[in-house]
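User: Show me a protein chain along with its predicted structure.
Assistant: Here is one chain, sequence first, then structure tokens.
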Amino acid sequence: MSHSREFTRKEVDSLLTAAMGKTLGDVDKNHIFDKTLTNPKVTGIAGDVVEQSILDMEPDTRPEADITVDGEPVELKTTGIRKSKKKNCDLYEGKEPMSITGVSVKNIVHENFENSRFWNKLDKVLLVYYEYASLKKVKAREYMDFPLMGYHFHEFSPEDKAVLKADWEQVYNYVKRIQDEKLDEKEYAGLSHDLRGSLLYIDTAPKWPNPPRFRLKRSVVTAIVQEYFSGKKEKLEVIKELTGIEALDKTCHEKTVIYKNRTLKDIAIEFGLPIYNEEGKPNKALSEQVTVRMMGGKSKKINSIDLFNKAGIVGKTLIMSNKGGRTEDTKLFTVDFSEWLDPDVKFEESQIYDYFANNQFLCIVFQETVEGDMLQSKFLGFKRFSFDDDFINTYAKRIWDDVRDKVFNNKLVETVCTRKDGSVIKNPVGTDKTAVNFPKSSDRQYLFMRGTSGDSTAKPLVINGIHMYQQQVWIRGKDIIELINKKEFI
């Protein structure tokens, strides 16, 4: 094995191009996978194979960039991708957040962003992708069957660098305050939860007292992956004013000052947006389109704004009743049952944990002036929030545990829906309406499941022999109002 960590671009291209399309086991000439025989849960095996068997380097844990390419320092990152489970989407997505470097609480206070270990690792990155070609969680040795899918050198745009800098400074200021005020070290635990609502592109994990590390959020990794595999830069709107959480809040506040108490219809007219759909009914997507226009964008969806897409900012319109109550429950996400039904997947590794821990929610709040008339609802402002650890470990974990208990212990039951008089409720096509005993809104839980389908006869999901609609996680309207009422308007 060579000790050199210096390459030309031609050498890197030659070594990696020859490996593409082969499995990690195929290219493991130095038998890196042998250690999985005695340690089946060893982590980082894919990266070890790329580094030690493809690039023929010795193991290294230095804080500096991993290699030099044509004299330039470059960080090497091997990361898993998987096929997107979004409907009608044939792209890949990042499997998980990408670990960058340790959050050294002793050293970070003596750094600035440009010379930080964090930016040293991200300035120039060589990304190598393998496909996590399994629907279930696998042990390290089974990575031998995963194929190498591609590689490229990645540099962040000036706009992305500005967001990363703002995020890093949030962590820097948090650590520095603890040291300046001579607080107890246990305060570092706040890095993983106090800053959750302040960081856009990064997070830190694991929790103190375990040594925390900077990570790129999975949503950022996915954006990089999809740009590479699509062969072109996604046409997302870059709004240069949105360079961090403070800049986002400032923009939201400025727009609230301008548009507060104006009706949705009035604001839409100002922006020249279509108020009614082809059927002559109010455009249900109007509030989201209005929000994009407020931010300076021209697209129809919030996630078409580059910052929102990468940061995992989920836009949700909340139309409160004229008495301050919520008029509707809110849909959150479609359940990926491949991991919910895998007994080896831990809650902290699950889709539902990732959704609540790593997304932020920008709520566009309106209030009815005429009951049932969305267009006459008046704009009140923006509220931004993220779910805290108590919510995640109580309500999100409760629905996770409830569903898995029913599935694994044969408690899942399908029943025919009836009215109070005992008569059977029929679907529009004449079939009996049925329900599965997943958590329901009537169970008085924050989170519940609801099946969805455009055709009541189509039940593509089969669990324990029961045919059912695709399932989505929802939050009760009254409960989300309770959550956001604890937050001030931006």
